[in-house]
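Exercise 7. Predict the joint structure of the components listed below.
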Amino acid sequence: MNVHIASYNTFPTAAGLASSAAGYAALVTALSELFGAKETYPGEMSTIARQGSGSACRSLYGGFVAWRMGGKQDDGSDSIAQQVAPESHWPEIRALIMVVSDAKKGTSSTAGMSTSVATSSLLDYRAKELVSKRMSIIEKAWMERDFQTFGRLTMIDSNQFHAVCLDTFPPIFYMNDVSKNIIQIVHVYNEWAGEIRAAYTFDAGPNAVLYTLEIYTVELGALMLKYFPAYCEKYICNNQFKCKVDAFTLEPSLVEAAERTSIKPCVGDVKKIYFTKSGPGPKTLGPEHAVIDSKTGLNKYKA
Amino acid sequence: MNVHIASYNTFPTAAGLASSAAGYAALVTALSELFGAKETYPGEMSTIARQGSGSACRSLYGGFVAWRMGGKQDDGSDSIAQQVAPESHWPEIRALIMVVSDAKKGTSSTAGMSTSVATSSLLDYRAKELVSKRMSIIEKAWMERDFQTFGRLTMIDSNQFHAVCLDTFPPIFYMNDVSKNIIQIVHVYNEWAGEIRAAYTFDAGPNAVLYTLEIYTVELGALMLKYFPAYCEKYICNNQFKCKVDAFTLEPSLVEAAERTSIKPCVGDVKKIYFTKSGPGPKTLGPEHAVIDSKTGLNKYKA
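Solution:
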């Protein structure tokens, strides 16, 4: 069977926003459906997706997904993704994705990780001593909808991943000064609140994913837009949310606390903000989703 | 005895350029001389200087100095500085100090270190498993004037120190985007040369100390000034060296390699460059060094 694959996405490509994960998960799902392929053991598809891009294995499922280390089978067949909880388990969880740069990364995450494995003397310790404990803690926190534990560990572990990148030789820097400023504002916000209301995590790029709860999204959105006025007019990719944020007045004491960082708002530091939540895995779209592309005359599918 | 202490320095203060180390070393030396104090065991003075600022213990001696961990005595009296080799041992070693910012640091190094000890899960591993081995390797490299080993480990260990700062919670960032660009240019230079000709190290601030050998100083200086044109007119604090750098033509293949980083030279990213070498410890200056300060009418001493 000859197959024509047309792939496009609505997210910046190769900018550390998991575009390769989404792409490979979609590809594996589409091909397995086309060929009627069935898993011979649970998670087998995820071991295939993983070979395109590690994190693609997680993108095969919705909600909160764990990538199991495996390591008992020489062929890596036990390094699979497992859904910890579906997206319906914690409906209040929200994400603000701050696009700091949509330029191509200097170091691809796959190449970066190989160099880290070869040269970082901290990576091995992190992998052996810290990661599996942290996995248990964060899974438990998710199951209990405990945002304090989840948020704190998310930030700590993001920082440690980037610490290992810096411990690589030559060092890898994915975060930049804007990323650093976002981190600082998140800490100011949580200190001001006396609890964790926002948690940042950075993948292999300078863009921040901020997790929060539904009740704090407008406050967090307003705070972020004050210090990181976005470049694009439709800066928050959800008009209704944008209106709420624009109409919101931040507490003067929070603004005072943020001013003490002496971060100067600068249009363009953040290009765009996506407002989203925990969603499902790949979906097969039927003919009712087809839209004819004006340039190519071919069908495009919109969810 | 009443003592009037007048302290001034020619280096930016509290900017991560060891100003407190220099200050406390000078203070301890001046007071011990004034009072005729003698050490009851070798290195005792360094345990006193260390209490003002950890790194001050090292500044009591010239050349290459090791700060011994100690840890056998509860009162810390065995955590002393020791001269590994005097400044005459490796006369070819040079340093270019790139002042990225002379603004006061967000986090003092002493406060930063306490937070790291309390929150970083990588610091303990680094301290127990890596530091003492690295100390032996670097001392040996210095004794053998082995710039390849010395330079490589200097960079690796600087990166690891900053990795631990990033693994602190909330994370500490001493380096900024300019520091990162300096690191990138140093790696380009070494890769181009096929050997290590320059090695960076960053203390608790964004400023780079670049070690090199006398034969490469002009080339390295010219490369750095091309990508980091300094703010201040007297940007290199040594006129003779500045003239040599200005007259130097960089190899086209090196410029090509550096261009591929897409780093855009920007006046002001680096404020000033000090060109210096391994020197002696604190010196007592006699009346022949006294200069009357025009503002205060008091004596100032110039080395």
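Discussion. Residues 142 and 296 of chain B are 44 Å apart (CA to CA).
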